[in-house]
Amino acid sequence: MDANDFIRLEETFGAHNYRPLDVVLTRGEGIWVWDVEGKRYLDCLSSYSAVNQGHCHPRILEALRRQAATLTLTSRAFRNDQLGLFYREICALTRSHRVLPMNSGAEAVETVIKAVRKWGYQVKGVPADQAEIIVCADNFHGRTITIVGFSTDPQARDGFGPFTPGFRVIAFGDAAALERAITPATVAFLVEPIQGEAGVILPPAGYLAAAREICRRRGVVFILDEIQTGLGRTGKLLAEEHEGVEADLTLVGKALSGGFYPVSAVLSNSEVLGVLRPGEHGSTFGGNPLACAVAREALRVLVEEGMIENAAAMGDYFLSGLRSIRSDRVREVRGRGLMIGVELVGEAGDARGYSERLRELGILCKDTHGHTLRISPPLVIRRDDIDWALERLERVLTGH
Ligand SMILES: *Cc1c(COP(=O)(O)O)cnc(C)c1O
C-alpha cells in the first residue's frame, strides 16, 4: 500500500471531521517523524503539544511496556499501586494539594466545571442552578457540547445546540472586563494563559496577575487551562509561573503522557475538589495504573532531562531567528518558549498553502484559523535543528 491507498481508506471509511495535510506518518523518534515513503520531517506541531518529550521517548516507552505487562486497568472500584504515587509526584512538582485524574483534556475541563458549580452552591452559597462561569472570547477548551457551547468560534459551535447555560464570555486579556462581569452568582473564571488554538495569542503583561488578584478579592475560583501551555511548552513547567501566580485550579493533559496515552488531570490548590463526594464524578479509565505509570515517567523525563530549560533557551533562539527573517508576508512573530505563532499577511486560508510548502521542504506544521502558522516542536529540539528549520522557513516565508 502507498500513501494514496491509506488516504483513500481514511476518506472512504472515516468521518470527515478533520482536513489533515496529506502526509501519512508511520514512525517517530524525538523531533523527527517519517512518512510511509521514508521521507523525514521535523515535527513542528508536536501533536498540539502532546509530545513535548519527543516522539517515542525511550524512558516513557519502557515505563509503558513494564506497566502494560503488569496491570493496566482496575477501575476506581479498587485501588492500585500507581495512583497514589502519581498524585504525590505531580502534587510535589506543581505545588498542588489535590488531583483528579481523567483522560482527555475536554474531560478535565468538564470535571472542573462540575467541581466549581458544586463549590458555588455548597460553599459560596449561590442559589441552586444559578452558577455562572466566565470564559474568554476565542477560547479553546475542547469539543464536548458544554465546551463548544461557550466557544465563540462558529465552526466549533454552529449546528450543535442547544447548549448548556451558565457561561458568560468576556474579551481575552482585559482585566477590567473580568472585574465588570463578576456577579454574586459567578463561581469561576476559566482562561488559557496563552490562547493556543486562537493563534498563539499572548495577553498583555500583568494580565494573569491582575485576574488572580480580582478572583481572590471577589471570591471567584481562578482556573487556568494549561493543557497546551503547561508541562514545559512555554519554558516554565506551567505558564502561570511567568507572572508568579498560582491558579486555584489548573488543568493539564496532552504532554502529561508524552503522547503515549490520554491522561489529563485537574490540579487543585484550594479546597474546591474537596466538594466532590463518592459517586458524584468518575471515569472508567481515569487514574488507571497504566496511565499513572506513563504520566509519572513523562513528568520525570521533562524535569530530569532539562526539557523545560531547553524550551526556554531554544524558544528564545527560534523566536529571534524568525524575527530576523525580513518578509512582507509576515505580520507578526510572537510566542513564549517553544509556543510560537507566525501571523501572515493576507487572506484567511493562506497559511494552509505555507504548511503545504513547508511539508515539501521537510517541516510539518499546521495553520490555525487560516492566517497563523503555529510552530511548536518537541522540547528536545537543539540549536542546529532550529538553524535547519529557519533556513527552510525563510525560503517559504520570503517566497524564494
Ligand atoms: C487540546 C486542548 C484541550 C482539549 O484537549 P483534548 O484532549 O483534545 O480533549 C483543552 N484545552 C486546551 C487549551 C487545549 O489545547
The number of distinct helices, counting runs of at least 4 residues, comes to 13
CATH class of the domain at 58-304: Alpha Beta
Rg over CA atoms, rounded to whole Å, is 21 Å
| Main beta sheet | 7 strands, mixed
CATH architecture level-2 label of the domain at 58-304? 3-Layer(aba) Sandwich
> Within the CATH hierarchy, at the fold level, what is the topology of the domain at 58-304?
Aspartate Aminotransferase, domain 2
| CATH H-level superfamily of the domain at 58-304 | Type I PLP-dependent aspartate aminotransferase-like (Major domain)
Low-confidence parts? none
Strand order of the largest sheet: 4-10-9-8-7-5-6
Q: Share of helix among residues?
A: 25-40%
Characterization of the model:
- There is one protein chain.
- With 400 residues, this protein is of the alpha/beta class.
- It has a domain at 58-304: Aspartate Aminotransferase, domain 2, CATH 3.40.640.
- The protein contains 13 helices and 15 strands.
- A hairpin with a 4-residue loop joins strand 2 and strand 3.
- Helix 3 packs antiparallel against helix 10, helix 4 packs parallel to helix 10 and helix 11 packs parallel to helix 13.
- The chain is globular.
- The protein starts with a helix and ends with a helix.
- The mean pLDDT is 97.
- The structure holds pyridoxal-5'-phosphate.
- Residues 48, 104-106, 109, 140-142, 192, 196, 225, 227-228, 253-254 line the site of pyridoxal-5'-phosphate.
